[in-house]
Write a structure and sequence with these properties.
Helix content is about 35%, strand content about 25%. It is of the alpha+beta class and about 160 residues long. A hairpin with a 2-residue loop joins strand 1 and strand 2. The protein is globular, with a radius of gyration of 17 Å.
Length: about 160
Amino acid sequence: MLGFVLIALFCEGGVGLLPAAFCAVMTLDQASRQIQQCAEQMNARYQKVVFDEWAIISLEQNKGHLLSYKGPRKAGFQKNFLEDAGSLRVGMLTEKYDVGDFEFARHGVGTGFESFMVLGKGIFLICNNTVQSMDGIAQDPHWLSAQEPFADLSDKFRADPLSL
């Protein structure tokens, strides 16, 4: 008898013939570590803080649940979420984005969110700079190299989605 049974698995992030034990998903702790590493790399390349606010949220049944937060205004983030989501809100509430996809709001000002990334089904990373707009961030010549770790993070979640 076989020590394990091979079955065809259709996991988010890939399709293949794998032992069931190998179809793992990223945990919230693992995701938080990946995001922290990305933030550090972006800040180093940008030579200052790119996003001072990072939050992982779940939007189940169009209700937001804050899963993880790093930034200067946790209470304000939760209280003003719908207003701060601004133009990004529509994208988060539709299912047109796949895991790893992201969108930027060019004109987010102050606490208005600059970006989101899809981390898993109904799970998003919100990235924000509470002082500058995305247009202001993008004017710095270091922004080009700071985008590389963000794109790498996107690929990591595309390959290994966050699941709760």
